[in-house]
């Protein structure tokens, strides 16, 4: 009986985290309420405090979950590509139209980056950890991994793709938005690493 309750609570907690991770990427930290997230998770608002001690604690976990989900997607893309093509596959997936149009399932850094400086330190720590993982992923998939300057190039590539996605999402002209992604993708793919 206790295992069933614990399993049910864990399943509910996972639904809240998954729904909330999508919601914050779609609407921003200030754009969602506890009630919104609980409703999206198909749970009652009253059950929130059985899972989180505060809204901030929830946002820390949602930020971490959103980052982990995105890293898993991009790592899987790189892993499934032929070794010499893994960075190209990662860049193509990050800078694609689907990622542009669906922030709720993509990179939380690009979706929430401008909001980060105003968040509480625990949220920023969770996000920083995931940013470091993204930089490390780009570094590991680069052909110059382990060579002098490789980490700096991974920093530049990561900053460039995140910035390109933020810029493309800010533009209200589809053709220009897609041109930004295409130009950055082609430049990074054609640049020697």
Structure description:
By secondary structure, this protein is an all-alpha fold. It has a single domain, classed as Tetracycline Repressor, domain 2. The protein has 9 helices and no strands. The longest helix is centred in the N-terminal third of the chain and has 26 residues, at 2-27. The termini are far apart.
Sequence of secondary-structure elements: HHHHHHHHH
Total domain units: 1
What spatial form do the alpha-carbon principal axes imply? Answer: globular
- End-to-end distance, in Å? 56 Å
Helix content: over 70%
CATH class categorisation:
Mainly Alpha
Superfamily (CATH H level) name: Tetracycline Repressor, domain 2
Helix segment count? 9
Find the count of extended strands (DSSP E, 2+ residues): 0
Are there runs of 5+ residues with pLDDT below 50, and where? none
Short description:
By secondary structure, the chain is an all-alpha fold.
Key phrases:
mainly alpha, single chain, 71% helix, 193 residues
């Amino acid at each position: 009986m206790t295992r069933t309750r614990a399993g049910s609570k864990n399943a509910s907690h996972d639904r809240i985290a998954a729904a909330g991770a999508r919601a914050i990427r779609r609407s921003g930290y200030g754009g969602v309420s506890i009630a919104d997230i609980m409703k999206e998770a198909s749970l009652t608002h009253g059950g929130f405090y059985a899972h989180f001690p505060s809204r901030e604690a929830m946002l820390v976990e949602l930020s971490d979950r959103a980052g982990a989900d995105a890293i898993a997607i991009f790592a899987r893309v790189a892993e499934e590509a032929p070794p010499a093509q893994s960075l190209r596959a990662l860049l193509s997936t990050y800078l694609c139209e689907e990622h542009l149009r669906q922030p709720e399932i993509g990179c939380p850094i690009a979706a929430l980056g401008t909001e980060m400086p105003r968040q509480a330190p625990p949220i920023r720590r969770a996000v920083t950890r995931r940013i470091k993982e993204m930089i490390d992923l780009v570094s590991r998939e680069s052909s110059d991994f382990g060579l002098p300057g490789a980490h700096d190039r991974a920093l530049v590539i990561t900053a460039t793709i995140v910035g390109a996605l933020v810029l493309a999402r800010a533009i209200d002209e589809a053709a220009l938005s897609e041109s930004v992604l295409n130009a950055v993708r082609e430049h990074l793919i054609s640049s020697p690493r």
